Here is the input.
Amino acid sequence: MNRTTRLDKRNARDGQVDPQTAEQLTTSEQELAKLTKEMAEGYETGANFRCEFLFDAEKDMLAAVDSLSGTDFPPAILKEKDALANLIKARENLKQLLKKPDGQGKKARALSRAMEQQKLRRPKDSEEAAEQLAERLRQLENQEESVCASLSGKTDSNAPANSKQPSEAAGGTTPGKTKPSQPGEQKDSQEQQATGDSEGTDGGRKPGDMDRGQVEELQREIVDEAYDLTQVMAGIEGLSELARTRMDGATEKAEQASSALARGNTPEATEASRQAGVMFGELAEHVEGLLAREAAQRIAKARDMASQLARREQKLGNAAGATPKSQGKSGADQPNGSDQPGSSQQDGQQKGEGQSETGSGGGSRGGVNPDHELRDRAARLAESGRTLEDVLRALAKESDEREPSGAGTAERVARLMDELKVSDTVAQMQQLADQLKGGRHGQVRLEAEDISGQLEILAQRLEAVHRAVVTPRLHELIALEKRAAALREGLKRLESEGDVSQWHRATDLLAQDLEKLSAADRAASDLLEAMHEEGWGGDLDRWGWDRIDDGPYYVGPGSYDRHLGLIIGELQLEARELLLSDLIAAGDESTPPEYKLMVERYFKVLSQEPRNE
Here is the structure.
């Protein structure tokens, strides 16, 4: 629906639409209608449940297809809205069906799992959704950089487009290859400028090789993807109002770039695409901080943000001290190493900020004013400060029910924010940015150093909170893993019907504890489902299992052993991640004595156990 709305706006503005884009949209709508019909028929035949809302949604989608085929967008949008409303109603109906304890509910749950395996509808937990959301935001950031890099070398806004399809040059940059995931650790800007972000296009084409038509199409695709992500974010719990507002702002800026390209205004499009890229990159960091699954992960993210911001503020102060105040607007032609060459086009997310200390920039290229660069960097730092504060506020508001292993964490974070006056520090960062924007250098270096010191203290205190959460979480994971391993071994030693029932009771309790602690909960849910299929929780009189070679022990279902193996593997993986992240964060520090012995014992156990496939 969002893509259709975008296409309708484009048609009203330009008087025409790209036939290929319209055809792709029609094909997508047809595929959605097909999948919806398959789901409706699947529940009707497999679970004896006819969901009229699904059939109605399919009819609406097919009506939208007819309108799209004739590029009649307004009625298509209305039908897509109707389809969405029916899908929402169908979802509520199916939720009730899947909760039913009778045979119909059992069939529906089995059908749902089959559909999941066929990828007809594959639900994702918040962690998976967050990972994909951040990855897609970074891809948008990299694509905007490709657009900006291409436009920065084009002075003829009416350059002819070649006959190649947009997809040949609009592949976007592969996330994680051309830019590290954390600010403050970016590649050298001169190297990136030299490579031209060549991985960002198909066939190794550099952004500068894209002609005008390809750049315009890539920017339109960026806008479409941004609108899709806005809808994705609307369905994800845990995102703050600031994050949602930022997504709207980044989408608006990307649309401004697209509109400027259509009007032939290259300078406006270049600047708008640069700003959109910066906004998408900041939002990716923001999303990761808000949606990391465990409290320990969210605290670690906030700690890393604070530490990186401290370093960046220090570099900003050094750069401000190294920039002659008399440069003014004429400083564009004087040597400057405070940021990467041409950063007004390729800032991305704090790229090249470390150059200010070396002064090796080799002169500002492309007419970039050093004062402008400082103002831009200070503004980006202020936005990153808002990100940090928002992540901390979300942590401070969490209930212990959401994160049992981090009970008391919210109170500790709230107290920490109050003691260190985090809001005042963030406000100080914004004031510094406003000061530079107004051309008032004043005591910028001293103020930046003061902010840097406050942020470093915050990072150290957050590390202490992180340790306080990690230690009990590790104990819980180890205890749960031992229980799962004992049950897996006990499954091979069941001699009587009573033993089988007792084993099921103990396993049911384990699954409940895993769910409460959000540890391997998906694998635990699958195990419970397998147990219910075998008759657990019903009116079963006898289990009816076979004996192993007519011996004393029963043969349990293979799915039980498989699911327990997955649970053990996931618990071990999380424990490893907690341990390694904590050791990495400690740097050269020795392992804290309160859990040094636990770390050593756990790694010894892991080295002796076979891997669970």
Remarks:
- The radius of gyration is 28 Å.
- The chain has three domains: 2-123, 127-466, 469-608.
- The first helix runs from residue 2 to 14.
